[in-house]
Amino acid sequence: DQQVKQNSPSLSVQEGRISILNCDYTNSMFDYFLWYKKYPAEGPTFLISISSIKDKNEDGRFTVFLNKSAKHLSLHIVPSQPGDSAVYFCAAFIQGAQKLVFGQGTRLTINP
Amino acid sequence: GAVVSQHPSRVICKSGTSVKIECRSLDFQATTMFWYRQFPKQSLMLMATSNEGSKATYEQGVEKDKFLINHASLTLSTLTVTSAHPEDSSFYICSAPRQGNTIYFGEGSWLTVV
Q1: Which residue does chain B place closest to A50, by CA atoms?
Q2: What are phi and psi of A65, to 5 degrees?
Q3: What is the spatial distance between Cα B9 and Cα A53, in angstroms, rounded to a whole number?
Q4: Residue B61 burial (CB count, 10 A)
Q5: Taking an 8 Å Cβ-Cβ cutoff, which residues of chain A contact chain B?
Q6: A67 contacts A58 by C-beta, under 8 angstroms
Q7: How far is residue B52's CA from residue B47's CA, in Å, rounded to a whole number?
């Protein structure tokens, strides 16, 4: 049972435009969500997180939106830069357990 | 800078031998650390939760005798792959929560068993 889903395996965006990465979840017990960026043969790099009591968190070019009623979150990157090309994972956990459940990942390619 | 550090980043070992991978939290204490495995083009799979001062908790399907986990101190957890076989070749990654809700990952360790 895939509790966290990223339905788009890949996404291509023009440099300078907005990249929107989507993530859906099924477990309403999740109360914390995180986004990670990953290059091949490297560990994931933490980008941004959001608590379930919020609907938006912004950090520089990265903004995460959470829609609890739809069990959906999205990561917006604007403006997109070539260095943003990587695989992006969304992850969720239940406070106290801290066991991350990952989505399958979305490969983002930023085209010049 | 790195928050969680893994060592070695790459290791090649002969089939039948054991390999140890270290995961260290830098500048913070981690009573809990997590070990993941990633197969090519797949998501990260949680193998086990490492608990300082007590036994690790393994996920279903993970052999605890094969993947020995020791959380020796508040800043160090080790994963030992015992009697390694080629199918154990993979990318192993550890993580640790810092300040409660932000979980940081190590750089990862490539294991190749020949």
Answers
A1: B101
A2: -115, 140
A3: 38
A4: 7
A5: 32, 34, 36, 41-46, 49, 51, 89, 91, 93, 95, 98-105
A6: no
A7: 16
